[in-house]
């Protein structure tokens, strides 16, 4: 053992460093003292080559990764290595077996009897250098620690000032802690790699994506609820409330909560904004009651179960809600004071007072087997408009028409199709939407003019208004819901789509202190003292009408026109109505639909099972966010984007910079602006341009564009390193240029952390940890030429934060998440193998892609065995993906089982001859009028059955608002069978439409995207979004219907 006072100092410093490292490893104080006692015992037994603080760092990493320390490449003495392994093994044993280790306190490590002299301190530091495990000479200058890029103590000055040993220990321990922080990260990463013989670590059989780099989180701004502030842009952000009876899949996550989270995080990083982000689970309604029946639980138990699942999923995905609440009360019938009940009833009473609530007896579908009225979505049957036999009671996915359940032909209970159903009368309350049509039209046109709403949101809302608003029933015969405060309606509750959006308000109330608090009304009924409140809402396209029509109608209708923000009473002020609405299309899974029951697709509760971090999932989902058209999740695409963008651009820049910085001394050099040259000027220009694009995109909620701009910031850093070649500058002795390159690259890494923070918050935290620096307070408008890290600031060594995704990973995940029947995996594999060509031939019911010729069901040609090869270029505009072409009706006959349908044989130019299509035109034309007529056909729709007849497309017609008049779209003279319909220059040259469009469910549906924009103009010209459609340069027209919907 080292003798004398210096040995006591060294021993004390070692214990101090161990304790501080234990805290760094987030161990309890008791465990820290246990570790200190183990370290001290090894010290006492082993002499001055005994274990170092690095040994305990390795042990703390081992506690997390359950890996023994291995030699990480440093030159350590054999004895030191043995001691390090011994202490790691003992610590692991204590952790795994719970072996008793008596914790000790400070009294076990007393101060030496006298203060040290300068020479003794210097001698002690030499001993510490040896203790740290380096195989170097005992006479080595103690300032060798400068090789770690750490500041040194001025030992002589420290001693002359009479510094106590305790103070000296604290200072020295801080130095050793910094070394330990580096070593804990580096050793853990190397150990994980070496233990499994590769760059990918393994933890209990799972892939470890990165070493355990701690998160240096941004400090919270406020302990209390966020309220509007004067002089700030007060932004109230909501995302569509996820329904509580299921587990969200990736499409649900990107469609609402993740998109809103990115925008909220960016808003928090802008100095002029004050933001609150509210969300929660939507828990009332029939779906919850049915789910409870299926699982043998009460509705509240179902809500408790799935609320916890949702909360856990969003926490793992790093969704930063200010408040995540719920709509339901444990006992809805006795829920007075509960914000959801109080606010929903307050709004209803306001609507009623203005005469906008009507009572009406309606016919409803009652299931005698379930002994309950069935919600619309639990009734199935035949669509009265298109005769599709799989329509739901609220909407037909085949033709897109909204329905009432009683309109369906041959209705059946979807819960149990063997149950008999019947129609019964029931009294309900209706919202008088027609009386609010003018206000709603003004709202959508104002938002459209300011581009505050997504284009699909504007189109969908305009279509709703153009088709004519109808009174909307807002009550249901259920028990699980908010009670309707109306005489004679004591047994009824509010319809979920009246009730659910009010959840944003009630959750804000729960966040700020309850219904009686004034806090929530400052957001939802501002008095103007803190300025305007801007409501920004995020959702998928299926939620649009409820947020753009019904919710604003309820808010506007419940307050008189005279309502003013200056009113003395909060209840007399107008409600905050949506200003910005960001709505997405659908995300497919590998060319199909997500299905929890069939095991198809990645759901929120199993995304982490891939071993990929939440950052990687967030990055990928946001990079394919379906902003203007449906997009498809693809494992191949995920791997490509991870490897070519995250690794090659972002991770590469951070790692290169930190590696260069450590080689340059590990600290931030001072900038020498007089030595700036063309490379620096190019960096400043590129960074500024990317930042301007980034902030503009996020301000407009164009999240994909913002992500691309963030990548350009990192790319500018990579380009700067390539342009300056710091390693060459160092060799050439150009110190000023060399230090400028290192310093600016480090400052750029700091910038990269903040611009990626909204997209990958964990990545930003870990970058700040490696920089050993706090986050930048705000996203800047320009790159700070003076730098954001202080001169001389020490940084930590580089650690890879992302790992490559291999072909084996892709194959494994595709098989795991491809469904029990392998259908999704098979379809994706076929697509990957190049099965994108549009095969000719007839499939089942006459669909293209079949192999054998013959008669299919319904008299259509085609075999049924072979599936069609999928082709869907989601990068094309939706119009370009729809195959609109000229066809000729060869013959037509009455459908034998449907009095509104014609069966038609239409020549569309297919190699296999005419196809069969069903059209609901018998009330408007005779069969003779159809024969030999040229028509426009939607030719790439997935075949659907219409009362036993398989229809392979749709004929385009103009319709009056009440559908009392229907006209074919006329084809111009000279058009030929098979000619494609164009619209300006929307269709890129050489592009091909989708091979098949599935109108049902949440698959890719470009037809659904363009449908609202298909109308005739005032001159009866058939247009898409106001641009005439043409064949051979000549316009398509309707005979007489102007300003009419085309369908």
Automatic annotation (TrEMBL):
EC supergroup of this enzyme: ligase
Any one annotated GO CC term: aminoacyl-tRNA synthetase multienzyme complex
A Pfam family it matches: Anticodon_3
CDD domains on file: Anticodon_Ia_Met (cd07957), MetRS_core (cd00814), tRNA_bind_EMAP-II_like (cd02799)
MF (Gene Ontology): ATP binding; methionine-tRNA ligase activity; tRNA binding
Keywords carried by this UniProt record: Aminoacyl-tRNA synthetase, ATP-binding, Cytoplasm, Ligase, Nucleotide-binding, Protein biosynthesis, RNA-binding, tRNA-binding
N-terminal signal peptide: none
Biased amino acid composition, Gly residues: 844-862
Domain TRNA-binding: 878-982
Region (Disordered): 198-225, 835-870
Stated family: Belongs to the class-I aminoacyl-tRNA synthetase family.
This protein's name: methionine--tRNA ligase
Naturally occurring in which organism (per UniProt): Cafeteria roenbergensis (Marine flagellate)
Taxon lineage: Eukaryota, Sar, Stramenopiles, Bigyra, Opalozoa
